[in-house]
# Entry
Amino acid sequence: MAITAVVTDIEGTTSSLRFVHEVLFPYARERLAAWLAAHASEQRVVEVLTQVRAETGEPEATVQRCAEALVGFLDADRKWGPLKQLQGWIWTTGYAQGDFTGHVYADAVAGLERWHDQGLRLFVYSSGSVHAQELLFGHSDVGDLTALFEGHFDTGVGKKTEAASYTTIAARIGCPPSEILFLSDVLAELGAASEAGLVAAQLVRDGQATGSFPTHDTFATIHPLEMP
# Structure
């Protein structure tokens, strides 16, 4: 079957690892405690605080203690949904104030635009929340790219290293797994996607370990419509 849809990772694939780890993560970390204190009465934040207390087993934890726990999660690079939501809310302010713009490789922009023009359906699957994904592409270095994508997925569909997550994505997209190309820099993610029946290809931009998947250091060499 021919490829009809492309699902792409962000970090290390469309966008620089350095941007995520040296700009976005520190920005949220430095502002997390103050942001939580300022917004603690909002229902969305109340729900996150409730989840933090349950996760830590500290039902009486103060907002400050919850902030400390969340910083610990950040430092451990935990892919925890409520934390990812919180990061996205903090980054909303950063993007709106022009503190930074979303880094997207020029070759990724060109590739995504080319595939969109060719009629391929484009989706994003990242451990960052859907909101954070939309912020990055909506405030990219070259402007708003959100119109290129038909949809976004985060860890709400499951972990990126589990085949069931990709089965769920294929079902939501509404096409056979064999018609979907998944792009990532992480071998464990590619393995899970392949196990679910997706076609997988690896982006190698920062010296990542490689395996048995086709490798590319640019979107320019990826031609989904020519894949068997």
Summary: The longest strand covers residues 121-125. The chain has two domains: 5-16+103-226, 20-97. The first helix runs from residue 17 to 39.
